[in-house]
C-alpha cells in the first residue's frame, strides 16, 4: 500500500496535509528517482492550475528540485496535458503538474510525468516514497556550483496552442459553419488561460463561461463535475454544443443542443466512428475501464469492434494501449486518450475531435450521441471497516448475492464491486434496463456488504 501517492498522484488539503515540507521531500526524491540514470544535470518543468495554494506548492517544489541540483522551468498556469506535451517536446527529464483536478480549491496535488510525457507508473511512485522515508534526502543535496537554477517560461503556452493549430487549422477552415456555436466552460481552471485562444485561432464560434479564476472558484459549481450552468447556457443561447473541462484540463464532457449530457463513453462511441471511417482506429479497438457503461459494450458489439476494459484510472488505460499497440481509449469521466497525438488525456483535444466529427457528419450533436444507448446505472457506497475492504471477495454470502444477480441479468446487466483506494468504502455499481429495480438491488447489496464487513 502506497503511503503518499494515490490513483492519480498525491492529492490532499493544501498547506496542512500537503505541507510545504512534504512537497519539498516529494520534489527532492522525485528529482533523484526520475533522473538517476542520466549523466547530465536534469531539467524539470512545473505547471499548475489556478488554485490559491498553487504558488505555495510551486515554491516548495522548486526548492526541492534546486536543492537536488535540477534546473527548473516554470510554465505558470497551464493544463495538465500541455505540461505533458511540453515535457516530451522539450526533452525535459520530467514534468510536474500542481493540481487537484476536479476537487474544490482547498485541495491541491502533485502529478509527475516522465520524459515521454506519460504519468509515471506505480513502481516509480513507490520508489519515490521509499527515498522520501529512507533518511537519504540529506545525501542528495547539491553544493556550490551544482545547485540548480529556475527560470520562467510562460511563453511556452504558445507552443501548446500551436499543437492544436498544427492538427486542426486546415480542417476547421474547411468545415467552418458560422451557425455552429459552442459553449465552453473552463471551470475557472487551467484551461481558462488557453481554451479561448485555441478556439479563436481555429475560427470556431463560441461563448465562454466560468473563465475568470480568482484562486478559490475553481470547479465551484462549474466545469465537468457541475454541468447545470453549461446546460442552461446552451439552451438559452440556442447553441450547437456545450463543452466542459475539469480544473486541470485533462477531462472533457459535452452537452448536446437539447441540454443532454454526453459523457466519456458516448464521446468514445461518437469519435470512434469517425476514426473507423478514416481507417485510423488501430486494431478496431477501444480501451476503456470497468466503470464504462454496458452500452459501450453493446455499441462495440454492434460495430464489430473490440472493447478492452482495464481497472479504473487513465494511467491503466494508457498502459494497455501501449502494451498492445492501440491508439484510442478513455474513461466515462471524460479522460480520453488519442495516442497518435498525446499520451495523456487532453480536454481541449477531445473537444476538437468531437467538433470535427459532428461537422464532418453534418448532424446535430444529439443525433450523433444516439449511436450509443446508455444503460441505467446506479452507484452506492457501502461504509466498511478499512481493514476489511477487500474481504467481500471471500465472503460466501456476498459472493452468492453477486452471482445470483449476474445470472439474472444474463448479459443485459452488470454488477461491479470496487473498494475505494482512499476511503473506508466499497463501491457497489449495478447496471440494468430498469432504474428502479437496479437501485433496489444495489442498496440491498450495499447493506449486505456493510453488515458483513464492519
Topology diagram in text:
Blueprint: E1 10-13, H1 20-35, E2 43-48, H2 54-68, E3 71-77, H3 80-89, E4 94-98, E5 107-113, H4 122-132, E6 150-152, H5 157-175, E7 182-185, H6 195-201, E8 206-209, H7 228-236, E9 241-245, E10 252-256, E11 261-262, H8 264-277, E12 285-289, H9 294-302, E13 306-310, H10 314-324, E14 328-330, E15 336-338, H11 347-361, H12 365-369, E16 377-383, H13 396-409, E17 414-419, E18 425-431, H14 435-452
Parallel strand pairs: 2-3, 2-4, 3-6, 7-8, 7-9, 12-13
Antiparallel strand pairs: 1-5, 4-5, 9-10, 10-11, 14-15, 16-18, 17-18
Helix pairs in contact: 1-2, 1-4, 5-11, 8-9, 8-11, 13-14
Largest sheet: 6 strands, mixed
Give the strand tally: 18
CATH class (first level) name of the largest domain: Alpha Beta
Distance between the termini: 21 Å
What is the gyration radius calculated from CA atoms? 22 Å
Class based on secondary structure composition and strand pairing? alpha/beta
Largest beta sheet: strand ordering: 1-5-4-2-3-6
Strand content: 15-25%
Oligomer state of the chains in this structure: single chain
Mean of pLDDT: 95
Shape call: globular
Number of domains: 3
In CATH, the topology of the largest domain is named: Alpha-D-Glucose-1,6-Bisphosphate, Chain A, domain 3
Specify the helix fraction band: 25-40%
Number of helices: 14
| CATH homologous superfamily designation of the largest domain | Alpha-D-Glucose-1,6-Bisphosphate, subunit A, domain 3
Q: So, CATH architecture of the largest domain? A: 3-Layer(aba) Sandwich
Low-confidence stretches: none
Amino acid at each position: 500500500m502506497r503511503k503518499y501517492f494515490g490513483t492519480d498522484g498525491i492529492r490532499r488539503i493544501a498547506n496542512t496535509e500537503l505541507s510545504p515540507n512534504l512537497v519539498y521531500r516529494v520534489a527532492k526524491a522525485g528529482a533523484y528517482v526520475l533522473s538517476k540514470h542520466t549523466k547530465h544535470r536534469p531539467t524539470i518543468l512545473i505547471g499548475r492550475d489556478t488554485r490559491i495554494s498553487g504558488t505555495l506548492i510551486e515554491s516548495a517544489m522548486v526548492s526541492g528540485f534546486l536543492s537536488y541540483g535540477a534546473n527548473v522551468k516554470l510554465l505558470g498556469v497551464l493544463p495538465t496535458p500541455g505540461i505533458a506535451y511540453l515535457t516530451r517536446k522539450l526533452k525535459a527529464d520530467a514534468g510536474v503538474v500542481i493540481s487537484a483536478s476536479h476537487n474544490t480549491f482547498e485541495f491541491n496535488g502533485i502529478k509527475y510525468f516522465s520524459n515521454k510525457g506519460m504519468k509515471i507508473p506505480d513502481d516509480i511512485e513507490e520508489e519515490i516514497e521509499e527515498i522520501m522515508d529512507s533518511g537519504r534526502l540529506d545525501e542528495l543535496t547539491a553544493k556550490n556550483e551544482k545547485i540548480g537554477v529556475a527560470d520562467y517560461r510562460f511563453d511556452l503556452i504558445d507552443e501548446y496552442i500551436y499543437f492544436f493549430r498544427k492538427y486542426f487549422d486546415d480542417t476547421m477552415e474547411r468545415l467552418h459553419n458560422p451557425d455552429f456555436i459552442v459553449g465552453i466552460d473552463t471551470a475557472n481552471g487551467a484551461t481558462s488561460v488557453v481554451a479561448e485562444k485555441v478556439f479563436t485561432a481555429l475560427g470556431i464560434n463560441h461563448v465562454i463561461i466560468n473563465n475568470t479564476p480568482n484562486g478559490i472558484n475553481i470547479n465551484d459549481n462549474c466545469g465537468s463535475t457541475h454541468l447545470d450552468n453549461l446546460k442552461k447556457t446552451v439552451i438559452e443561447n440556442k447553441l450547437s454544443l456545450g463543452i466542459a473541462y475539469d480544473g486541470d484540463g485533462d477531462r472533457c464532457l459535452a452537452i448536446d443542443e437539447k441540454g443532454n449530457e454526453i459523457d466519456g463513453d458516448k464521446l468514445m462511441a461518437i469519435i470512434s466512428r469517425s476514426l473507423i471511417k478514416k481507417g485510423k482506429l488501430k486494431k478496431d479497438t477501444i480501451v476503456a475501464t470497468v466503470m464504462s457503461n454496458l452500452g459501450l459494450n453493446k455499441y462495440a458489439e454492434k460495430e464489430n469492434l473490440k472493447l478492452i476494459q482495464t481497472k479504473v484510472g487513465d494511467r491503466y488505460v494508457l498502459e494497455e494501449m501501449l502494451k498492445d499497440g492501440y491508439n484510442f481509449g478513455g474513461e466515462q469521466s471524460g479522460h480520453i486518450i488519442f495516442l497518435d497525438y498525446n499520451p495523456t488525456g487532453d480536454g481541449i483535444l477531445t473537444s476538437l475531435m468531437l467538433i470535427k466529427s459532428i461537422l464532418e457528419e453534418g448532424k446535430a450533436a444529439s443525433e450523433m450521441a444516439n449511436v450509443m444507448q446508455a444503460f441505467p446505472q446506479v452507484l452506492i457506497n457501502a461504509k466498511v471497516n478499512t481493514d476489511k475492504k477487500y474481504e467481500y471477495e471471500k465472503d460466501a454470502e456476498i459472493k452468492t448475492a453477486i452471482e445470483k444477480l449476474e445470472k439474472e441479468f444474463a448479459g443485459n446487466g452488470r454488477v461491479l464491486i470496487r473498494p475505494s483506494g482512499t476511503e473506508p468504502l466499497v463501491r457497489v455499481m449495478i447496471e440494468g434496463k430498469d432504474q428502479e429495480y437496479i437501485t433496489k438491488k444495489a442498496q440491498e447489496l450495499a447493506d449486505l456488504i456493510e453488515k458483513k464487513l464492519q
